[in-house]
Amino acid sequence: MTGNPLDLRPWLAQVKELGELREVRGADWNLELGAISELNVKKALPPALLFDEIKGYPKGYRVLTCSTSSPARLSSILRLPIQKTHKGLVEALRGKPAQWQAEAGKYDPVITQSGPVLENVQRQVDLEAFPSPLWHEMDGGRYIGTGCSVVTRDFDSDWVNVGTYRVQMLDKTHLALDMVPGKHGRIQYEKHKAAGKRFPVAIVFGGDPLGYLISGIEVPFGMCEYNYMGSILKEPISVVRGEVTGLPFPAASEIVIEGFVEPNDERTEGPFGEFHGYYPGKEGKAPCVTVERVFFRNAPILMGSPPAKPPNDYSYSKAVMRSALLHDALIAAGVSEVQAVWAHEIGGARMFNVVSIRQRFAGHSRQAGHILSQCGVGAYMSRYSVVVDEDIDPSNLQEVMWAVATRTDPAIDIDIIQRGMGSKNDPMFIAYPYDAPFSSKAIIDACRPWDHKDAFPAVAEASKELQEKTRAKWKDLL
Ligand SMILES: Cc1cc2nc3c(=O)[nH]c(=O)nc-3n(C[C@H](O)[C@H](O)[C@H](O)COP(=O)(O)O)c2cc1C
Hints:
Blueprint: H1 8-17, E1 21-25, H2 32-40, E2 48-52, E3 62-65, H3 71-77, H4 86-93, H5 96-103, E4 110-111, E5 120-122, E6 143-145, E7 149-153, E8 160-163, E9 167-169, E10 174-177, H6 184-194, E11 199-204, H7 210-215, H8 225-233, E12 238-241, E13 248-250, E14 255-269, E15 284-296, E16 301-303, H9 315-332, E17 338-343, E18 352-357, H10 364-374, E19 384-389, H11 397-406, H12 410-413, E20 414-421, E21 438-445, H13 464-473
Parallel strand pairs: 1-2, 3-16, 4-12, 18-19, 19-21
Antiparallel strand pairs: 2-3, 5-15, 6-9, 7-8, 7-11, 9-10, 10-15, 11-14, 12-13, 14-15, 17-18, 20-21
Helix pairs in contact: 3-4
């Protein structure tokens, strides 16, 4: 059986056709690629950027950024009908993650012996052959891996995990891997470390962006992300096995390394600008991969997805994907009448999440808020979880904060959870009153109080019908 090799190039042709690709020549890997990408993504509808003729590198050695930052591109990556609007994308995505997850078991990857990724092999490894950017001024070094997928295997089972973790180039043959405690790759690493065994690693640095989109979201513990991708594509992923680790990677990947973390080889990594918009820590220690092989296509394209103060390269796709996952998680936990969920970009799609519900019983809104804050997909770094009524659009901050300002009594409507799941990467970690990364969390119930709902003051705004009639009649003006 043949499968899908996750080829970036047909997707790029499609994006060009959509008019959403800009080619940029002559930029410098040293801060310029990062700054151009960062400014580009602040535009209303940012195009994807394909950098070529990068200073000091041969023509054809390219870097792609901003790949997922528009509804049209994101819908094409997810194999949904092309959506030009954000609302259309959210509607097209509703219920899909639960379906993809349920069917993932049917799509084990298929092994193939050949593929474009094997066009070139470095056995004398030189990672500097690729234009890894220095993305931000205060970064600890050049990061070859941002929009990447790190492939690892469990110590005591066959489970292969594929996760997006940042990868710093330390020198021509060494990489540092920042996997936060609790992430699946980290768990697999810790088991190898405890047993004193070397930890095999393969890292994919470019390919169909479906790859890094899915390796960057919370696929359940024990499930291989390749299965999940296959479920989206409705066909298995076609993979080749690395010659030194045996780890599988998509056959049309752009650049792949293989190597090992030798027991206890942890080296200085970072600092690095983060998804919430800060450098939360100084440099730390991270597992160091000694690279033994590099495979790459002719004219390889490195996938870049640098974090920064939001909106950043991947905050839009994270907001869309995490909102859909949170919506499904609420339903799976039994919360009824969920209208919509939005994980706001300002909180890096983690720290400020909102759900709208149609209240049906006393206590309904608190149930929704606490589950939003604590469910498996949501708990990590969920600082504020807000619940609003169905007349509020949870993705519209103006409306959400209006509900918070006008429908809450702070003494009653803000619940605080102590010792919840925080992170060493939280900018507030410095002020945590704990020795471990616990963090408190607020649930803001901004719904009209259930027991005074019917007597609650009416909203002073033209009715939906009057608005529609007026818009239709005064189209040119409005
Ligand atoms: C572009 C990008 C960069 C990321 N960088 C890191 C990182 O450096 N370390 C980390 O632990 N998680 C990082 N994440 C988040 C993880 O990819 C995400 O939590 C994912 O679920 C991890 O995979 P796992 O659930 O298999 O552990 C990043 C996500 C994206 C999209």
